[in-house]
Amino acid sequence: MGQWKSVLVLILFVSSSLAGCLESSVDEAMIDFVVEYESDSGVVIETYVDGERISLEEVEVEFDFSKTTSSPAIETYGLESMDGTETIIVDAGVASSLTYAFDEHGIHNVTLFAVDASGVKTSQMVSIRVDLRIDWSEAKTNDPAVLPFNPTPNNGGIHPIAIEIESTVENPSLIDGIGGGGQTVEFSWNIVDELDDTCQSKGGTAEDGGEDTWQTIHFNTYLLHELRIIPEEGQDYLNIQQTVSVIYSSQ
Fold first, then answer.
1. Among 130, 129, 126, 128, which Cα is nearest to 35's?
2. CA pair distance 63, 10, nearest whole angstrom
3. Full set of structural domains in the chain with CATH
4. Which residues contact 207 (CB under 8 A, 6 or more apart)?
5. In the 8-state DSSP scheme, what is residue 183?
6. From 209's CA, which of 4, 52, 102, 105 has a CA 20 to 30 Å away?
7. 173 pLDDT band (50/70/90 cuts)?
8. Is the pLDDT of residue 23 over 70?
9. Quick check: 47 and 138 in contact, CB under 8 A?
């Protein structure tokens, strides 16, 4: 994530009047709502080995409310998730920051808020962009597993702009460090959507002890997809390294 710092500032004036025949009084509350956070973007990383997910690295964003001021004093700070199903509240007398973890890709709009001692609440929505990277590896396989990926965000928000794919197929020598004894493997890469339509494909060849790599960009971000490697000739065992990135910004 980037090292620049975002600052959100909102000044809220709330006035209430009690009018009588002879006099009136005005009680005025002011909240100077300032929130700082290091970055508004990140990448969720899912790691798979031989088709099994072994780790998930979330995107954590810390929101710092320490520069918020109010008269009367702030009692609580908080965050509401995009779908309203999760709310985090912290006691301002105990902590002045909170951390929220994003485990799915998408543009996530969260609402930050502060409540003062008189019950006055101010809030502001911020957007956090979360990309997805899938790191996939298989070793010594002659039947490569299908790599599924879903570019549709589960939060119902806007779709990513593209999917970047890099896949390397290695045909290791039968005797490590010594060429010969193996055979050339021909195969194809295929990106297939949930309708079983082939969106992109490319042929590959890996000689004994060699490898081949495919790099491509895919722009259909509205259907479930699979990345398939299909050996066509030769039965040597293969090593596979693949990365699928779901991207929301070109920057």
1. 126
2. 15
3. 6-130 (2.60.40.10), 142-247 (2.60.120)
4. 171, 184
5. -
6. 52
7. confident
8. no
9. no
Task: With beta carbons less than 8 A apart as the criterion, state whether 208 and 173 touch.
Answer: yes
Question: Would you state the structure tokens that stand for residue 51, as one six-digit string?
Answer: 């088709």
Of 211, 223, 213, nearest to 189 by C-alpha is 213
Distance between CA 230 and CA 153 in Å, rounded? 28
The 10s digit of each residue's pLDDT in 59-108 is 999 999 999 998 899 999 999 998 878 999 999 999 999 999 999 999 99
Q: How far apart are CA 125 and CA 110, in angstroms?
A: 6
Nearest-CA neighbor of 99 among 122, 79, 125? Answer: 79
For the record, the structure tokens of 188 come out as 């194809």
Task: State the Cα angle at 6 between 28 and 247, rounded to 5°.
Answer: 135
Higher pLDDT, 245 or 174: 245
3-class state of residue 236 by DSSP: coil
The confidence score (pLDDT) of residue 95 equals 96
Residue 104, C-beta contacts closer than 8 angstroms, at least 6 positions apart: 44, 130, 132, 153, 154, 155
In terms of DSSP bridges, do strands 238-247 and 225-233 run parallel, antiparallel, or are they unpaired?
unpaired
